[in-house]
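INFO worker-7 received task bundle
INFO bundle size: 2
INFO processing item 0
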Amino acid sequence: MRPDDPFDDAVTARAVIAADGTLARWSEGARLLLGHRAEEVVGRPAAELLADSTGPLPLPADRWSGTLVLRHRDGGTVSVWVLAHHRQPGGDGPGEWLAVTPLEATDHDLPDDPLVRKAVFQSPCATMVFDQGLRLRGVNDAMARLLGLPADHLRGLRPTDIGGRPQHSELERQLRHVLRTGRPHDMQTHMKARAENHAHAWLARLAPLTDRSGRVRGVCVTAHDFTEQFRARERLQLVNEASSRIGTTLDVTRTAQELADVCVPALADFVCVELLEPEEGEEDTPARLSPPVSLRRVAQRALTDDTPEAVTQVGEVVVYPEDSPQADSLVAGHSIVASVPAGDLDSWLSADETQARRIEKFGVHSMLSVPLQARGTTLGVAAFTRFSQPEAFTHDDVLLAEEVTARAAVCIDNARRYSRERETTLTLQRSLLPRTLPRTAALEAATRYLPAARSGVGGDWFDVIPLSGMRVAMVVGDVVGHGIQASATMGRLRTAVRTLADIDLAPDELLTHLDDLVLHLSEEAGGDSGPGEVGATCLYAVYDPVSRRCTLSRAGHPPPVVIPPGGPALHLELPSGPPLGLGGLPFESAEFELSDDSVLAFYTDGLVTSRGQDADQGEALLLEALSGASGPLDETCDRVLNSMLAPGGATDDVALLMARLRGLPSSQVTTWDIPADPALVAPIRKQVLDQLAAWELLGASFTAELVVSELVTNAIRYGAPPIRLRLIHDAATLICEVSDTSHTAPHLRRAKTWDEGGRGLLLVAQLTQRWGTRHTTEGKTIWAELALADME
């Protein structure tokens, strides 16, 4: 035992009783009082010390005081006043009791000044005096009533003996400070009157008491009750804290957890938040409010990790029967306070043995159930439970719980509405994005789309569009704003890009037309009040696998990244065009020759700004993540997202499109220069048939011969030299292209019965998979695609 252990003193008799009723500790003061040495009584039943040892020691688990007759070692009896300290509900540790006897005169006597004694003991304030040894020398009637103990029995106790609370340990520390410095000190503390069931808040003045020589001989403690002001301040602080801590996100579960966190331990020892389950097929309509009520627990918080484990875990559904506080408060539409000692829960607990055992185990004595209501709709219930705090829920506690819960209910309702809108927007967004990418001989592609984790779903999109001549277009765009309007605008722009791409516009021309469309959309969105705020960025690229050249143009969009085979990733330097929707500014294109197996990466700005960093830092990190992208593209996409995005998800929408380019071997392409002489069409047909035989495509010979004859004849008759014929094929497609320098495009028409011509293009359209015309700077190209699978 330590020399400075306050348990071991010769003034106050102390003993500790273990949970099994045996004596666990025995102080020197107890030996002097009763004559028993520690080794004689420790480990033996405490009841043996009673003068009448036939009955049990009358010390309940809760705090108790009174007079007992104990047996002295010499056979005599000693009447003592006993103070048994409070034991925590459900605890199995020892309880402490003290046998208090009158003090002997010591050298710590206080100055015998009548004025001091009159000021101390006739003061209307609760007053007590401690000597230099921190022994209580006297109290006035007001302090005795506060402590709920007889004034004569308080002499000799330490501050921690009075209540055993941490606040009294702080009082003892401050008393020592006043004794040491001789300066008064003010402090706040809590003391509980035995006659009441709640603690008081006191503002205590600690003043030194000195003798005639100026030596500090004691401390006078004067306490002023400011419980109501203190509780009002605590309630205001909790409301302020709730307004700042609840509703920080638009997430239902997070908001409910914030409500539980704020209220423990300030208002309750255990809080759980449960929401009503919606009717089947009616997502926005909660279940009918009639017992039994099904609730899903979405959040809970306990005082400490080792205090009540919930019968129902977060995410589980519990059904509350009639007479339960949760069901009653939901049906009644107002708060319900239930007290266990009063029997308010008997009907419910008799039907739920698990809850009954839990309440008994942890000493739950008071429950408060508050319905969560917002905008005329009942969302669920918040249940508050007390077991460690001895006070039951008061009317002020109910008002405070309703105030905090009302704030949380609005935030939860906002989160539910936002979640529904977000899910609707996300469904629309995903329906407008391509579900699968087309399989082409020119490239292999992989994509990823991630909506923003916190802000609303935006208007990011991507697309891969097959073009004539086995070329392929790649596009990535980002619409300004979030929500359904941004997703709808994205869908309109993606459709427009596909339409413009179908007529084979050059990238810079396509962006010019798209810019005009965004201007029109902005005017429509603004209406009569002026232009709206519709804007977007876009990057459009066309790759030709025959020439292995890629033409790109961008409108306010981040530049793409190219990863050459075996080389480091680098940005393609493109002219920076203005974002779509500004109007009046031109767009420029850039052309690059790319080797086989080069990888192009297109992305939106949400990928490089997700960690709150600037775009330059994000792009440098992206180059590092893309370096050495030689594996499967799907794995590369996942690796890039994992390295670029924060653990909590993207702060803005992210679209990523990666394409590995594949050039077409020269053996699969043949080109002829055609003289402008109709008589040479027959030899051209013969050369085509020979080439098809060399490619082992004899099944397509008849159709290809007919299509080539018609396209070449039209070019000779209506076009302008030079004329060129090109055949391209892969495993699935044969393409016939005839180019000339005339800009006049042919039109498909139906010939009348007596017309001698006009059926050629109609016949081509019927025999081929698709056909069309694309304009170039030198003229035009008429092309037709034949599906080889249909000709086997």
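INFO item 0 finished
INFO processing item 1
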Amino acid sequence: MATRTDAQSPAPHAADIHDVIRVHGARVNNLKDVSIEIPKRRLTVFTGVSGSGKTSLVFNTIAAESQRLINETYSAFVQGFMPTLTRPEVDVLDGLTTAIIVDQQRLGADPRSTVGTATDANAMLRILFSRLGKPHIGPPSAYAFNVPSVRASGAITVERGAKKAVKATFNRTGGMCTRCEGRGNVSDIDLTQLYDDSKSLAEGAFTIPGWKSDSFWTVRVYAESGLLDPDKPIRKYTKKEMQDFLYREPTKVKVEGVNLTYEGLIPKIQKSFLAKDKEALQPHIRAFVERAVTFTTCPECEGTRLSEGARSSKIRRISIADACAMQTSDLAAWVRGLDEPSVAPLLTALRQTLDSFVEIGLGYLALDRPSGTLSGGEAQRVKMIRHLGSSLTDTTYVFDEPTAGLHPHDIQRMNNLLLRLRDKGNTVLVVEHKPETIAIADHVVDLGPGAGTAGGTVCFEGTVEGLRAAGTVTGRHFDDRASLKDTLRKPTGALEVRGAKANNLRDVDVDIPLGVLAVVTGVAGSGKSSLIHGSVSGLDGVVSIDQGAIRGSRRSNPATYTGLLDPIRKAFAKANDVKPALFSANSEGACPGCNGAGVIYTDLAMMAGVATVCEECEGKRFQASVLEYHLGGRDISEVLAMSVSEAEEFFGRGEAHTPAAHRVLGRLADVGLGYLCLGQPLTTLSGGERQRLKLATHMGEKGGTYVLDEPTNGLHLADVEQLLGLLDRLVDSGKSVIVIEHHQAVMAHADWIIDLGPGAGHDGGSLVFEGTPADLVADRSTLTGEHLAAYVGA
């Protein structure tokens, strides 16, 4: 053994000095030359009001550059298949490690995507059944509802040396149900919703949204195909014409010298509307589908999506369909009971995955749950599952509000998971508003001081104790606790729900009071959404604002999304005696150089594309002639550059007085978006800003009852106060407000609480409390009661 002779401690190794991620001069979106140092192998929480720049710094700067640098290590050929990422606007980014992003982006809404397929649990189950299932029906694909059975035979020519014809047969066993094609439900189409049979095609018989009479690809291919008489009313078609019109196989036809494909109306509608998940469709298309199509559970597979063969093969009297229908906590227990040495490694991996579901608070989900029906918080936690058992260390995990959609009871469990990832030697970066999660941070970065252009600077950097003492918005509100109200409103009536059985609900009978602020709460998976969206949302006069993502391209902005641009265009048109279409950057008024985008995009294949400001319009998006028309001394590009507050004043009086525009702007200011620029692309808005933009839009709809699904998602503690004020104003104006919520401040502010539980999945689905918040606190009979009592200090 060699012995040390020197008494001095050795100098640190050069590799050990890189213990911070250094950001210098970040200018992405609203960031104003931000420079910070983030400690590695620590838990850092980024906080600040909604729109202050947290996502811009963490996701669009640090995580984006890490991903871009990793992508550059692949060959040019491989990079051609990957998304092209531009280098963020930042001077220096040092000390980056591989970033794993776990965000709240919804999982794919394809009807064949389920929780099982998204987490690879289905793939492991299929292998398990192909090895142990009795009777044995084939390889893993025989248990897959996305794989159809295929049989073929015939002669093939093998070009090897002398050409030779060989007889070949091909056979693949799939598990897809032939009737519903692996979707679990079948659709019947109401033909009266597709066309008016008293009219001919030439008279515009189609009543399908988006099918305009001059459309080359839809209406005209039917009218000018030569297969149908365009001037004959549809009800007078012969049997053959009706067959061609509704069901004809794809056929090549020539319309005005162009080769097009003619296809029967029913298969065309099925491909264009029904192949997509209903929740992913635009609202007016979804309304059409709900009118025209009735979805019923497939009678052949009973909604399991699987063929009879796949359902017949069982392990201990359980088929793969039964296994996928179990909630994961029960399935984990069943898998633990299997002891088969031949598949021991597979069983170990499957157990780990299923145990991760339970550990992360998703034990109530079933593997056959469609992924499009998961909330943003559930989707984020499903993505976390694959990282929990990972052996990777020294990576950077980036989380976007991991407590979204979690009951206070579940937040402690999420905190433990974040700390566990850190303790394995990883850097954990979390964007968060909940004080319970901020409190466990090793390092806090508070951005602000305001939102939008008023934000983008680092207001505080240091420990949680330092944040409490700091004078920032977050520091001042950190220990805020809402108190129970002294006076409660009296209900003006009640909405009766009887025998609710959707999903895990157990014959729930409840009277939801009207004319007050009613909060529906309970642990995640207890049945809140099933009760409200299943029994209340579809009723007349009910305006439902769910957690669905706002869809919009870089051409969409708050003005187009809220419908604000319509009255503005009409006001400009009236003042200048021209057409309203001139004042749309997506229509006649668009700059010809950039087609109204304001920038010109140059695609450089696998290299990051370049966006340069259009020289013709200088980024204003409109033709020069359009900018000569004014309203109240401003042109249309100057109006779109205004903030909501400026525009509210501009359209409120004087020559530009436009009541319709002023009303929309008032709603945007009410939800706390006064700082937002009217022409700002939707793609640059934060999650909290999108949530409030959606709320402002729906507030304009006519209805006596508003249903809000977790409106505090993405909101800072200071913004929650403003939201409570807005809910009070809605109720005081004569509306009824029903809120599905976990935030204790909203519960404390309620007039009436409905608590579901006691647990999640099949342990929930029952009404465990209904009454006032004060009664719930005094009772402490439920998990919600305990946490609310602790919150208000009772």
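INFO item 1 finished
INFO post-check item 1: The mean pLDDT is 87.
INFO post-check item 1: The CA atoms of residues 177 and 307 lie 4 Å apart.
INFO worker-7 idle
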